[in-house]
Amino acid sequence: MKLLKDFNRHSRYIEFTSKEQYFDSSRLSPIIGWFCKFENNFSALYIENDILYFLFNNNKAHISPNIKVELSQPLLIDTSSPLKLYQREFNMYERKSLFRKKLLFSFRYIVEEFYQLTMENEEDFDWGLFVANIVNNHKRQKTIIELLNKKKD
């Protein structure tokens, strides 16, 4: 059994293949990454055989030095609720040459303003920013792979 931790809910996990839900990981292992569901989409950042992957619905990309993520600036879309809602666009590219890149994934997602109220880091509440900060930083990729490999032991 391989588990993904829910990015938005502290104690929820799903089994990677079956997507069966679990709410207690103390007896379960290993945790191989994180997932986030939004609208009708499923995405995950996980390791498999010491390689980092990003999954969006049924398509995955091996995270290599040629893969980069670009995020749009947050666009305010709702101020009527207690927490402001922002929309961001996530674009993952594979650099083919100095001037050419191939779009791998592109999607929009919603971010709540919650991090500003809790004084937490913005990436703790923004899935796209969390993924971008890992994909765009080779040192952080290595740290994530090491961390997830320790959780497998």
Q: Radius of gyration over alpha carbons?
A: 16 Å
Strand percentage, roughly?
A: 35-45%
Low-confidence blocks of residues: none
- The helix-strand sequence is EEEEEEEEEEEHHH
Shape: globular
Widest beta sheet: strand line-up: 3-2-1-4-5-6-7
Number of helices: 3
| Strand element count | 11
Quaternary state reads single chain
Structural features, described:
The chain is α+β, with helices and mostly antiparallel strands and 153 residues long. It is 19% helix and 44% strand. The chain contains 3 helices and 11 strands. The protein has helices at residues 114-118, 127-135, 138-152; strands at 3-6, 13-15, 21-22, 31-38, 41-48, 51-56, 59-62, 67-71, 75-78, 85-95, 101-112. The chain has a 7-stranded mixed β-sheet with strand order 3-2-1-4-5-6-7, with helices on one face. Strands 8, 9, 10 and 11 form a 4-stranded antiparallel β-sheet that branches. Strand 1 (3-6) and strand 2 (13-15) form a beta hairpin.
How would you summarize the topology of this molecule?
Layout: E1 3-6, E2 13-15, E3 21-22, E4 31-38, E5 41-48, E6 51-56, E7 59-62, E8 67-71, E9 75-78, E10 85-95, E11 101-112, H1 114-118, H2 127-135, H3 138-152
Parallel strand pairs: 1-4
Antiparallel strand pairs: 1-2, 2-3, 4-5, 5-6, 6-7, 8-10, 9-10, 10-11
What's the quick description here?
The protein is of the alpha+beta class and 153 residues long. The chain is built from three helices and eleven strands.
Search tags:
3 helices; 153 residues; globular; seven-stranded mixed β-sheet
